[in-house]
Design goal:
Length: 187
Amino acid sequence: MRIYTRKGDTGTTGLLFGGARVSKADLRTDAYGTTDEAVSALGLARAAIGAATDRTEARLAELILRLQRELFVVGAELATHLDRRERLTDGTTRVAEAMITALEQEIDVLEELVEQPKEFVLPGESMTGAALDLARTTVRRAERRTVALADSGGLPGSYVVPYLNRLADLLFVMARAADGGFRPVRA
């Protein structure tokens, strides 16, 4: 099987579960394409950690991998045409509310450990932190694209927008953790 099919040469692409082809400039395509960029940016962050040398790096690497996999769930939901949504499965091809709750729990844990900045942050204190900030801004762009899709009626009853919103918050806290902003452990 070859990687090229030539089907996209007309500027269209296929969605999950079949159906009509859509423009590569479609709101849906733009939203899931930007989500795919976020997966790659998270890959950069995971690669920057490399072989984790401490518990913080190991925790971040494990969390990043989980988030990359969850973004595939987001992408699957976004890549499914409105008339095929009944084929989606919570947590596998559709964002479930529990996924948002899990992100909130991660934020709560990290906020207890990480000193939050009192001013604007200039990314670049560490390679991992900078990569996480890149992932965060990419997720924010995916969120904006997804809001446009939702506003057009393309995501009824979806949890994708709140998921992306919460994910960007988590990535901010993770970047601060990667940059070494830990508080002393409380007794």
